[in-house]
């Protein structure tokens, strides 16, 4: 192959890599979970939006109603979750209604549990492998 041929191939490869980088930036900017990921990672974790699993999502409800419908969850458990979330710096308004989404993510410390209302984190805590629930 000639020197000119190698130069052309190198330029084409560089353009393809640049296009891929721009495409990745566009995808990340349009990711609706980026704010959630930044909030979690700002507390010392390292997750990506691909690490988040949607456990449940319901419209026109509140967190308290979703939790109360769960088997074995008491009012005391709900208040405990709210206190843990407040300790993490979240509002923990369990009566705020809207679209409630429950997200889970694995981390080295345990399972991160997030309750979002209209895309904003209201409740957040971590469940360790030993069964302990701690502030995020």
3D structure, described in words:
The protein has 136 residues and is of the alpha+beta class. It starts with a helix and ends with a strand. 40% of the residues lie in helices and 29% in strands. It has helices at residues 3-29, 34-41, 63-68, 75-87, and strands spanning 53-62, 97-107, 110-117, 120-127, 133-135. The chain is elongated.
Considering the chains and any ligands shown, give keywords for the structure.
elongated, single chain, 4 helices, 5 strands, five-stranded antiparallel sheet, 136 residues, alpha+beta
Brief rundown of the structure:
Helix content is 40%, strand content 29%. By secondary structure, the chain is of the alpha+beta class.
User: What's the story with the biggest beta sheet?
Assistant: 5 strands, antiparallel
Task: Report the β-strand fraction as a percent range.
Answer: 25-35%
SS class: alpha+beta
- In DSSP terms (H or I, runs of 4 or more residues), the helix count works out at 4
- How much is the radius of gyration in Å? 21 Å
Write the element-wise H/E pattern from the N-terminal end onward. HHEHHEEEE
Extended strand count:
5
**Whole-Å distance between the termini?**
58 Å
Shape: elongated
| Unreliable residue runs | none
- Amount of helix: 25-40%
Question: What topology, given as strand order, has the largest sheet?
Answer: 1-2-3-4-5
Mean pLDDT: 87
Detail the topology: elements first, then pairings.
Blueprint (H helix, E strand, L loop, with lengths): L2 H27 L4 H8 L11 E10 H6 L6 H13 L9 E11 L2 E8 L2 E8 L5 E3 L1
Antiparallel strand pairs: 1-2, 2-3, 3-4, 4-5
